[in-house]
Amino acid sequence: MVRIKNIMRRGVITVSPEDTISEVAKKMANNNVGSAVVLKSKKPVGIVTREDIVNVVAHGKNPNTVKVKEFKQKRFLVAKPDDDLLSVIKEMNEIGIKRVPVVDKGRLVGILTDKEILLAAPELIEMLKDKLKARADLVAEPGEVISGICEKCGDFSEDLRHTDGKWYCEDCRNDEGVEEDSEANL
Q: What is the pTM of this model?
């Protein structure tokens, strides 16, 4: 299981509800980030994104006078450092957000964004491949055809068969010239 604390970004740009959109935009640009967490009494209460800034300008409002507190916050999610990454990703997808502040004991300690998730994706894929193989070994009968990841080429196949103690797709079984395991061979 991958924990949020293992992939979150620790440096978080923060703003106040009293800051103007122009001040927020400058802070984000100076730090080359796509969002800033809104803190009220040192607690995260929202997040301002590039899209929010574009919306202020697109609606003809003056970013030098509009304050963060004046525009409606979208749905907001907070995670804890020990939360399971896959669970948080699921919640992010359900809500439709790309950024989640990470809070420990009421204090902002990091942020999880789609960028950190993409950087962790190779590790997650390997973890899922291992879990899928373990599940296949537990539930599949010898000679049974299953779907999953071929242990030789790493491709997904709808035609995996247990061959020489591993799960191979049809192409890899043909390349190896091996016969699939049967109950008699096990």
A: 0.66
- Alpha-carbon distances of 120 from 40, 131, 145, 171, rounded to whole Å: 31, 17, 31, 30
CA pair distance 20, 133, nearest whole angstrom: 52
Both tokens of residue 47? 């997040």
CA diameter of the chain = 79
CATH architecture, domain 4-118: Roll (3.10)
Write out the H or E segment, with its range, that includes residue 21.
helix 21-31
pLDDT class of 150 with cuts at 50, 70, 90? confident
Q: Contact at 8 Å (CB) between 93 and 86?
A: no
pLDDT digit string, tens, across residues 28-67: 999 999 999 999 998 999 999 999 999 999 999 999 999 9
For the chain, what are the domain ranges? 4-118, 140-186
